[in-house]
Structures are given as C-alpha cells and as structure tokens.
Structure prediction request, 141 residues.
Amino acid sequence: MRIAPSLAVLICVSACLLLCAPTLTAQTPEDTGPDTVAIDGLSYWFGPVEFPHADHVDLAESCADCHHHGDGPDDIIACADCHGEEFDPAEPETPALKMAYHQRCIGCHRVEDAGPVACVDCHERKALPAGPELGEGRVPE
Prediction:
C-alpha cells in the first residue's frame, strides 16, 4: 500500500505532537501569549496574516496543539527556527516554512470543519505579475 506524501507528512506531524505534548506545561490565563501575531515572513503574492492568537488559545487544549516544540509558553520555538523558506531534501520530514504554516492552520481547520481554508480568507491579495490566474485562491485538498 502506498501512502500519499501529504498523508505521510500529516502522520509525522501528528507523531511529533504526541511525542512532544507531555513535555509542555499546562496553560494558565496569565501565560497565553500575545492577542495577535503578524505572520509576515513569506508574503509574496499575498499580504501577511494577522493571526488572532487569543481566539485560538481558547480552542486548544494546550500550547502543544499548535506549537509542537518547546517546554511551555515561555519556551516557544519560532516555526522558522526549524522550517526554512526552501525545502531541504536532506530533511525530508521537515516541510518548508510556507507548507508548515498551511499544514498546521488549514489542516486543523479542515479537521475541525471550522475556519478559513481559502488564501484570501487570511491573506490580502497583493498585485500579481502577469501570469495564470489563481482561481478562487483555495489550497488544494
């Protein structure tokens, strides 16, 4: 049986979450992080995402649901510390930064059947160079 690459990545990410979750401390009201986070490291065709962190804190059981590395709210590792802008074939189980963001966010939105999955739901579209249209701006399933 052959496993699709996207399913293999999802399985790896899930395994990492399960392995790292016991090391994370319980969340308390005073250590829930910033209200909003600007995710702007990769904004070529679309503007940055103003991520409503405070809204998501209430939805997660622990920080480990999203932050799969670190020892708690005071030790969160930035995604870009492990996920480079370009895919590294030497680290095939580590997706590039853009893919890591989209897998984490859109993957959860699809599992929970809630939240945006189209590019323009989170990103403001920038002026595009001449070329093919992006259609509805949806990430393929």
In short: The chain has five helices and two strands. The two ends are 21 Å apart (CA to CA). The CA atoms of residues 83 and 97 lie 5 Å apart. Confidence is low (pLDDT under 50) at residues 12-29.
